[in-house]
Amino acid sequence: METKLIPTLNNMGWMITQHHLDIYTQSFIDYALTASKPVLEVGAAYGVAAPHILKQGGKIIVNDLDSRHLECLYAKTPVHLRSNLTLLAGSCVDEIEIERGSLSAILCGRVFQFFDAQTISLCLERFARWLEPNGKVFIIADSIFHGMNEPIFADFLQRKSTGCPNPGRVSLADNQRLATHPNKEGILAAMPEYFNFIDIETMANLLNKTGFLIEQASYFPARYYDEVSLWNGREGVGLVSVLIR
Ligand SMILES: C[S@@+](CC[C@H](N)C(=O)[O-])C[C@H]1O[C@@H](n2cnc3c(N)ncnc32)[C@H](O)[C@@H]1O
């Protein structure tokens, strides 16, 4: 069977492989190769965009919570390209620090579904500080149309209608899609219990409050997932935004 996902070493879900890039990761790669300042991949696991950028002669700073992922990236990077790679282990929420205004773009791929709205806002504040004026942030996340949100979608709509700040946040422990899956325990153990399935409006509001203007946003088919995570071809969500403050 074709491998589309690689497990993380810290039970933070899976990384998509190099062959299953979504349009937002591809846009980040294209933008990074024209950028005048360094770019950053946040929550990269073993590096999704980074190998593409390095291979094409670009430079990149790569962050992940777990330094073992970054060690793997370093080991698989050809020796002559390693001087273009900077590794930064630690939490993007409250650990790593980057010089103010020093980045042209940031990719944050499939990390925000693990955070609540307050934590996402904290990250966005930090991203805004690190970016140059007109710098861009590329966000990809699991959307409200992720398969595991299908059986409880009405609950999401209800929370959204009452102005809940985290309308997509749920525990997956008793998820109905997972209940009948032969590897239910394995899947649950490999990722955080709480998920925040992201909708465009909620994410765009958080970005706007932090001084970002949305350039592009859409749901897209998450072709990298297996059946249990699929629903209606809109399982992924991506947003490109530009810093205007
Ligand atoms: C689901 S994987 C996504 C990996 C890759 N970005 C992708 O799109 O396939 C989530 C990654 O985010 C990292 N992560 C989670 N919380 C983080 C944090 N606070 N700071 C930095 N990285 C974090 C995890 O270590 C894990 O490697």
Describe what you observe in this structure.
The protein is α/β, with parallel strands linked by helices and 245 residues long. It has a single domain (5-147, 196-243), classed as Vaccinia Virus protein VP39 (Rossmann fold), CATH 3.40.50. The chain is built from 8 helices and 11 strands. It has helices spanning 23-32, 50-55, 67-76, 117-130, 153-161, 176-179, 184-189, 200-209; strands at 5-7, 14-16, 39-42, 60-64, 85-89, 103-109, 131-142, 169-171, 194-196, 212-220, 236-243. The strands form 3 sheets. The protein has a 7-stranded mixed β-sheet with strand order 5-4-3-6-7-11-10, sandwiched between helices. It has a two-stranded antiparallel sheet with strand order 1-2. β3 (39-42), α2 and β4 (60-64) form a beta-alpha-beta unit. The longest helix has 14 residues, at 117-130. It is globular and about 50 Å long. Bound molecules: S-adenosylmethionine (SAM). The site of S-adenosylmethionine (SAM) has 24 residues, from β2 and β4.
Number of helical elements = 8
Write down the overall mean pLDDT. Answer: 96
Strand order of the largest sheet: 5-4-3-6-7-11-10
What is the gyration radius calculated from CA atoms? Answer: 17 Å
What percent of the residues sit in helical stretches (DSSP H or I)?
A: 25-40%
Looking at CATH, the homologous superfamily is Vaccinia Virus protein VP39
Architecture, according to CATH? 3-Layer(aba) Sandwich
CATH class: Alpha Beta
**Bound molecule types:** S-adenosylmethionine
The fold-level CATH name is Rossmann fold
Low-confidence stretches: none
Number of domains: 1
**What is the molecular shape?**
globular
